[in-house]
Amino acid sequence: MQQGDKYCSGCASALELRENNGAMRPVCPACGRVVYYDPKVAAVTIVSRDGKVLLVRRANQPGFGLWSVPGGYVDRGEVVEEAAVREVQEETGLEVEVDRLLGLYSEAGRPVIVAAFTGVERGGQLAPGSEALDVGFFSPDELPTMAFPGDSRILQSWIDSLRSDS
C-alpha cells in the first residue's frame, strides 16, 4: 500500500491487501471499499532540427547524467499539450508548438503513462534549465545512453514515423 493509505476514507477502518479483480489492492474489511491508485501522466515532446532530435541530460534521479526526451509530469487540471510545451521550455529554453500526438506509452508495473508529441520549434534560446545538466540535438543513428527504456521506444516510434513519411 502507498504511504497514507492505511485507513479507509469512508469508515476509517484499517485497510488490508486483498485480491480484487485479479490484482492485490487495499480493501476495507468493514465496508468493502476498494482503493484504486490513479496512474501518473507525463508528457514529452520530440523536437527536431535538421534531422536531429532534442535531448536533455538529466540533473536529477532517476537517470542522473543520462539523456531523455524533454518532458515531465502533467499537473492536475493542466491540458496535456500545454504540459508538453511547458516542459520543453523549462528544460531546454526553447519555445515549441505541439504538432501531433506520436503515441501513448506505458510499461507493465510502472505507474506512468506517457503522452508523446512531436513539436515545432518557435523561438527561445537553447540552454539547460534547472533540471538539466546539458541539452543538445542528436542524430538518430548517434543517440546517447537514454535514462529510461520508454525514451528508446518513443524515439524508435519517431524514427519509424520519419521513414513512413518519406
Describe the protein's architecture and organization.
The chain is elongated. It folds into 2 domains: 1-37, Ubiquitin Ligase Nedd4, Chain: W (Single Sheet); 40-165, Nucleoside Triphosphate Pyrophosphohydrolase (Alpha-Beta Complex), CATH 3.90.79. It has helices at residues 80-92, 149-165; strands spanning 16-20, 23-27, 40-49, 52-58, 67-68, 71-73, 94-105, 112-124, 132-138. The protein is an alpha+beta fold and 166 residues long. A hairpin with a 2-residue loop joins strand 1 and strand 2. Helix content is 18%, strand content 39%. It is built from 2 helices and 9 strands, in the order ββββββαβββα.
Index terms:
Nucleoside Triphosphate Pyrophosphohydrolase, two-stranded antiparallel ribbon, seven-stranded mixed β-sheet, 166 residues, 9 strands, 2 helices, 18% helix, alpha+beta, Ubiquitin Ligase Nedd4, Chain: W, 39% strand
Determine and state the CATH class of the largest domain: Alpha Beta
Radius of gyration: 19 Å
Shape: elongated
Major beta-sheet overview = 7 strands, mixed
**Chain-averaged pLDDT:** 92
CATH architecture of the largest domain: Alpha-Beta Complex
Which stretches are low in confidence, meaning pLDDT under 50 for 5 or more residues running? Answer: none
- How many distinct domains? 2
Determine the structural class based on helices, strands and strand pairing.
Answer: alpha+beta
Q: What percentage of residues falls in helices of 4 or more residues?
A: 10-25%
Binned strand content: 35-45%
The beta-strand count equals: 9
The arrangement of helices and strands along the chain is EEEEEEHEEEH
Looking at CATH, which topology of the largest domain would you report? Nucleoside Triphosphate Pyrophosphohydrolase
CATH homologous superfamily classification of the largest domain:
Nucleoside Triphosphate Pyrophosphohydrolase
